Inverse folding.
């Protein structure tokens, strides 16, 4: 326990830990000391001089934001000296500040206004013309800068330096000519640039989309979550007359640390997209007829039941989504597993299992570990706020970073050790690391050769270095992306975690860094063929019957999503309900998927947007989606939080639609009043969620209990198919991909990239390709055009293709979730 | 008169090591190595040597603040001489670079420092080139490098040039500039002795300060302490400029009356004009009226007279000077050199310039003079670093002592006939 | 496209060795480019940034802080004319006006033939030789009109 220090502020005593800043100590007893440049996340700076206070025995006034408490300090924040200083500072700050309040977006939430009102001089003594600078200039397509309003507090430049680690927004020139800008006037367009809008204490940096749209005090603010990636950052959705106005941060130190990425802030335009599915439709005599949603839901349930009665429960399936809320997924699980009695549920194309053999770590553990081991993950493109958290841990908390990936990422720059394994050899690389550690511990190793450099592209000596880093770390946070692992490698990864955990005095935890919003929730809610909710194996009939009642366990083995497509193709699967998923685009081998879906006698698509899959459906149900929906999601740290709706709609919420389906087939229908009613029910039956309630997740969310993974068996080394022609394909996710969420009308459209393929120098030479050449990727009888980039972004023998848009149709080149081969040639 | 620095300064070829050694150069190193490093610090403390850059902080005391047991440590020699009126370091740097090297070696030995940087202002290219040559020569003679003369001291010395910024003379801004950053000052605490260059304990001293160290080692602390006054020991280089017949750098014993500097050493006022005002310590020091000219040139006496000794730059103004114009010129300088980090300095220096400009051009009023006084008060001790206070000095002191000059200009605006 | 010559690379290697942290070589590298090219272009900033693992924005931020770095091409001879207090007391203003008139760049600027760039400058630590000017690396003190004529006319 750190020693506390006693001080008095304005004759009021306060006791705070050593190292506390006076400005923070004052907050604790409700005393406001005005600031501009000070920000909790950016640390003390002391440049605005607004927080000058008087301290007994100190000859000069001192800035409260840089002064740490000292024993028996006597601080005065309202003495005549301080008042004069505050008025002086504000006079200087306002000296050349334009009188823009009537037209400035910041009005009403402006610290400069507030501080002037409370602490400022009554009027100005400035008789000269105020300095003219750039007004309302685009800093990027989404941020407007007004340099006349800037008070040079350097919050934004420090943010770009310290938090973003980019130094993209910088201070130029000197003295009165100080101005915030970028290199050569290029746009300031990092992935998290929008945060400067929130931290700017004046109206210098404003949201271009929001400009002049509404006064801040007119906004209805909803405390909600971002629904894009698996971070589930907290944000505030501001609306007026039920129209989305703007999105801002809503600091939660346990998740986002006070930041949101630009996709959250500017990527919610889809709410007003023309491509939304607004109503339920049925294909009747070759025509799509609009129908009542709940009525269609009832009919859907009955149709499914009919097919089950005729062909058996194995003939229907549910392809769910990591984008649904826990309540929606819970109800769909209930419908398919319990009401309709099938094990055919899934939500993904890669292989993954619930549960961890180590602690389930959360965002804060990234900072408190001694080593972050990043496997197969590119947070900058997949989970941006996790990227910021890792940067914080490495640059400011003394945490080390080790990276194992099949491609280069931005984080390599600050990593202590970064090793690149050949695309497709992830299983062997993980086994190699596990064995390197296991041999030291004298425990069971993976059988087979793992050390040869030719197998993974990593020399044995380098892998030993990695093992040494892990072994000596004592506290390791493993961050891995299951979606990037090929084939069955997830089992090797979990084996590795188990081995790390056995190191003496080791504290180990992992974060399954799946890019999608609620992958963890989807797994927890049992949208898996071989697992019930809470990670209970579907073969564990004793436990299943125990939790969900006798007879709940099913006989037949469930089909994965890809297997369901196969079975649809063969005609064995008769019906599918696809929820918030677009298999035509997102599953491998589009031709097969389309033909398979067309063969179904019943294809129901329940989605938010019109997709390439929804146009094939016989029945379409509208999903409200983020902005309108309400429910909980579980982020990659296992934290359950409430995603409140931001806008009102008359459409039925998804949970109502799904519960209607259940009720139509149930003798004892359950009516839910709100999404929380569903939450309450699921908390009673889903293992790990017993403590989850409206109350318990209210402020910061709550971690659900960890799910243990099945232990024991040392996995087998998968074989690498070396039989393929051409190069191994590695698809890299892009944060700003052009899809149904960010379309051409999005303010983030300037981030869209052309189709590019990244080759190693050696392969480029072999194929006679150079930088900038037009090329073609070919597989499955499909061609995808791309521009060549020779960048050594991966080891030889593979090609990295960023997934830049739905139109690119990249998944067409793939066949399975194992290694896929493509031919690359000049166009 | 005892001369510590200028004794042989004009010896031909002094910048080459052969001539320098012949003059007794590098003697102090062997003497220092015979003592323990801590002893050297005590000697320098006892000598009473105060920093010669402007702050006047006791050198030995500063060295003793170095964080114990934290390594590596660095030395940064402040050769950023930019205080208006000051040109003494340049003479030392161009004429006797080896003296500085010698002083640095002793200092680094005392403080257990293995790497030293001499931060030159960007315009001192010539002096820096001379030093590069001198360092090479010193290396060749075994005065720099590994295990110097068997003492166990490893020392590498490097030159580094700035690029035009007065603020980089401020020690923490200097460190930032040396690290390849904008020359903005740093928060203090932590002080450089604890967290300085690259976050490590660092000693920062002015050129002149370091150049005195060899003499102290050779002659002893007592001899140094015997010179000067109670609180200002030793000698001081003073750059005398402005309206004097013989402007130049003069070495005086601390406590010499300023009148002696002006009327004896510098030959008196040009054209035998009358003395009107003088600034004892560079433009950042308060302007003093002529009736204070007998003040003894030492830290405490000048402080008592209402100004400061500063860098040792004596700027002399005769009766032809319009003090407002002088203040205007100096206020432009601070406006130009403000780093812009803190609001009162960034806005205040410009506002003061605007007001003085109006007044100087006959557009001023007494209200504006009062406003200037208040701006000075709002800036004093409220800025991030001492540049804000320096900017206030010429303005506040000119209003205090030469209000009549202001009134003259204001009178001309407010209706009265202009006098020829 | 700005490319470092092999001679540059040799110099840079020596420079970087002086410091434990590469970033310290930023000012020396900027100075190297400034002296060679007469100004620093955005491409040069990018090249320097790449060399030292610094973002080009950061390089520009540091560069723009210091007055000795120029973003526009400068003349063969850069004349810095001190106008600070000691020099002003000794008639610098008149001599600056004279020099400006003589070169055809009153108030400062670059001559048509790109031979001279004239600027007012702050104290250059030559106060005892006031009034003075600095032309490239050379200090010229105790100026008079005649001296100025003599110096400028003799420059090739």
């Amino acid at each position: 326990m750190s020693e506390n220090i006693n001080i008095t502020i304005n004759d009021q005593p306060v006791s705070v830990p050593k190292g506390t800043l006076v400005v923070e100590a004052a907050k604790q007893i409700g005393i406001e000391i005005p600031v501009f440049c000070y920000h909790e996340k950016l640390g003390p700076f002391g440049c605005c001089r607004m927080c000058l206070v008087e301290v007994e025995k100190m000859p000069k006034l001192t800035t409260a934001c840089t002064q740490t408490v000292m024993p028996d300090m006597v601080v005065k924040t309202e003495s005549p000296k301080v008042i004069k200083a505050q008025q002086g500072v504000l006079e200087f700050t306002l000296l050349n500040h334009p009188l823009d309040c009537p037209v400035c977006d910041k009005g009403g939430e402006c610290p400069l206004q507030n501080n002037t009102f409370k602490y400022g001089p009554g009027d100005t003594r400035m008789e000269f013309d105020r300095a003219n600078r750039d007004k309302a200039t685009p800093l990027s397509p989404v941020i407007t800068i007004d340099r006349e309003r800037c008070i040079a507090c350097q919050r934004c430049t420090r943010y770009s330096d310290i938090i973003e680690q980019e130094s993209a927004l910088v201070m130029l020139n000197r003295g009165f000519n100080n101005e915030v800008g970028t290199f050569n006037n290029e746009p300031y367009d990092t992935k998290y640039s929008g945060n400067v809008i929130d931290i700017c204490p004046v109206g210098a940096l404003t949201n271009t989309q929001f400009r002049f749209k509404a006064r801040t005090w007119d906004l209805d603010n909803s405390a909600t979550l971002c629904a894009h990636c698996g971070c589930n950052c907290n944000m505030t959705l501001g609306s007026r007359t039920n129209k989305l106005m703007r999105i801002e941060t809503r600091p939660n130190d346990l998740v986002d640390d006070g930041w949101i990425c630009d996709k959250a802030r500017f990527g919610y335009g889809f709410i007003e997209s023309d491509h939304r599915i607004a109503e339920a439709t049925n294909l009747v005599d070759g025509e799509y007829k609009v129908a009542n949603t709940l009525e269609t839901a009832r009919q859907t349930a009955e149709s499914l039941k009919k097919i089950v009665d005729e062909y058996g429960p194995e003939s229907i399936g549910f392809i769910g989504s990591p984008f649904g809320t826990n309540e929606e997924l819970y109800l769909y699980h209930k419908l398919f597993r319990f009401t309709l009695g099938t094990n055919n549920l899934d939500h993904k194309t890669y292989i993954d299992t619930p549960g961890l053999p180590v602690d389930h770590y959360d965002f804060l553990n990234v900072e408190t570990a001694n080593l972050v081991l990043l496997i197969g993950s590119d947070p900058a493109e997949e989970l941006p706020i996790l990227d910021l958290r890792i940067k914080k841990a490495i640059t400011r908390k003394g945490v080390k970073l080790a990276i194992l990936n099949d491609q280069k990422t931005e984080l390599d720059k600050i990593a202590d050790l970064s090793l690149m394994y050949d695309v497709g050899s992830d299983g062997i690389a993980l086994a190699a690391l596990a064995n390197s550690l296991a041999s030291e511990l004298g425990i069971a190793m993976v059988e087979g050769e793992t050390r040869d450099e030719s197998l993974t592209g990593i020399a044995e000596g380098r892998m030993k270095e990695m093992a040494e880093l892990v072994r000596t770390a004592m506290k390791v946070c493993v961050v891995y992306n299951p979606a990037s692992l090929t084939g069955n490698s997830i089992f090797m990864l979990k084996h590795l975690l188990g081995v790390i955990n056995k190191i003496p005095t080791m504290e180990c935890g992992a974060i399954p860094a799946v890019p999608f919003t609620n992958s963890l929730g989807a797994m927890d809610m049992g949208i898996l063929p071989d697992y019930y909710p809470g990670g209970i194996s579907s073969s564990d009939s004793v436990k299943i019957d125990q939790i969900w009642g006798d007879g709940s366990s099913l006989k037949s083995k469930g089909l994965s999503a890809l297997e369901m497509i196969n079975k649809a193709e063969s005609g064995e699967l008769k019906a599918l309900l696809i929820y918030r998923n677009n298999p035509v685009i997102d599953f491998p081998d589009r031709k097969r998927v389309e033909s398979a879906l067309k063969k179904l006698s019943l294809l129901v698509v329940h989605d938010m947007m019109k997709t390439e899959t929804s146009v094939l459906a016989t029945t379409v149900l509208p999903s409200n989606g983020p902005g309108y929906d309400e429910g909980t999601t579980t982020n990659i740290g296992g934290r359950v939080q409430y995603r409140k709706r931001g806008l009102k709609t008359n459409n039925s919420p998804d949970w109502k639609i799904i519960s209607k389906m259940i009720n139509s087939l149930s003798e004892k229908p359950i009516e839910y009043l709100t999404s929380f009613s569903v939450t309450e029910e699921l908390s009673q039956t889903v293992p790990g969620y017993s403590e989850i309630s409206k109350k318990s997740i209210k402020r910061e969310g709550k971690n659900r209990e960890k799910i243990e993974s099945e232990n024991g068996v040392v996995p087998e080394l998968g074989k690498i198919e070396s039989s393929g022609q051409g190069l191994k394909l590695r698809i890299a996710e892009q944060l700003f991909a052009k899809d149904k969420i960010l379309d051409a009308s999005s303010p983030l459209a300037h981030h869209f990239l052309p189709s590019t393929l990244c080759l190693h120098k050696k392969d480029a030479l072999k194929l006679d390709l150079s930088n900038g050449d037009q090329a073609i990727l070919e597989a499955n009888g499909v061609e995808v055009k791309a521009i060549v980039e020779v960048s050594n972004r991966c080891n030889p023998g593979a090609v990295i293709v960023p997934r830049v848009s739905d139109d690119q149709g990249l998944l067409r080149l793939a066949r399975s979730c194992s290694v896929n081969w493509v031919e690359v040639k000049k166009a | 008169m005892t001369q510590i620095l200028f004794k042989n300064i004009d010896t031909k070829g002094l910048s080459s090591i052969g001539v320098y050694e012949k003059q007794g150069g590098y003697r102090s190193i062997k003497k220092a190595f015979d003592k323990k490093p801590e002893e050297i610090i005590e000697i320098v403390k006892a000598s009473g040597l105060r920093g010669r850059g402007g702050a006047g902080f006791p050198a030995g005391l500063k060295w003793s603040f170095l964080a114990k047991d934290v390594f590596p440590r660095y030395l940064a020699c402040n050769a950023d001489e930019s205080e208006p009126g000051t040109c003494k370091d340049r003479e030392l740097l161009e004429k006797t670079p080896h003296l500085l090297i010698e002083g640095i070696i002793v200092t680094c030995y005392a403080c257990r420092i293995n790497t030293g940087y001499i931060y030159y202002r960007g315009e001192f290219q010539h002096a820096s080139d001379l030093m590069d040559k001198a360092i090479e020569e010193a290396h060749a003679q075994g005065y720099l490098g590994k295990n110097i003369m068997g003492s166990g001291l490893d020392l590498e010395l490097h030159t580094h040039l700035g690029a035009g910024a007065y603020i980089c003379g401020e020690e923490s801004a200097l460190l930032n500039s040396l690290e390849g950053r904008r020359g903005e000052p740093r928060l203090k605490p932590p002080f450089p002795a604890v967290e300085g260059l690259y976050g490590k304990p660092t000693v920062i001293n002015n050129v002149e300060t370091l150049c005195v160290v060899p003499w102290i080692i050779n002659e002893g602390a007592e001899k140094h302490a015997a010179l000067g006054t109670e609180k200002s020991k030793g000698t001081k280089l003073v750059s005398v400029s402005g309206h004097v017949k013989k402007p130049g750098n003069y070495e005086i014993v601390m406590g010499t009356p300023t009148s002696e500097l002006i009327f004896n050493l510098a030959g008196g006022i040009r054209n035998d004009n009358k003395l009107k005002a003088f600034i004892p310590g560079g433009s950042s020091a308060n302007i003093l009226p002529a009736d204070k000219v007998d003040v003894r040139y030492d830290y405490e006496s000048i402080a008592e007279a209402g100004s400061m000794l500063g860098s040792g730059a004596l700027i002399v103004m005769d009766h032809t000077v319009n003090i407002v114009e002088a203040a205007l010129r100096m206020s432009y300088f601070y406006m130009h050199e403000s780093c812009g980090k803190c609001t009162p300095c960034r806005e205040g220096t410009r506002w003061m310039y605007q007001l003085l400009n109006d007044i100087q051009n006959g557009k001023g009023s007494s209200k504006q003079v009062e406003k200037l006084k208040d701006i000075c008060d709002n800036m004093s001790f409220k800025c991030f670093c001492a540049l804000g206070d320096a900017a206030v000095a010429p303005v506040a002191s000119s209003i205090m002592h030469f209000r009549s000059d202001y009134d003259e200009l204001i009178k001309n605006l407010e209706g009265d006939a202009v006098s020829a | 496209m700005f490319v470092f010559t092999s001679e540059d690379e040799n110099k840079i290697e020596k420079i970087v060795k002086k410091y434990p942290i590469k970033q310290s070589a930023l000012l020396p590298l900027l100075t190297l480019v400034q002296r060679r090219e007469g100004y620093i272009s955005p491409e040069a900033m990018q090249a320097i940034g790449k060399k030292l693992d610094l973002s080009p924005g950061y390089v520009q931020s540091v560069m723009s802080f210091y007055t000795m770095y120029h973003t526009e091409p400068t003349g063969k001879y850069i004349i810095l004319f001190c106008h600070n207090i000691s020099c002003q007391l000794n008639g610098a203003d008149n001599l600056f006006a004279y020099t400006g008139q003589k070169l055809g760049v009153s108030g400062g600027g670059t001559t048509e033939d790109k031979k001279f760039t004239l600027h007012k400058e702050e104290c250059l630590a030559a106060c005892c030789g006031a009034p003075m000017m600095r032309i490239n690396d050379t200090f010229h003190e105790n100026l008079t009109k005649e001296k100025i004529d003599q110096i400028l006319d003799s420059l090739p």
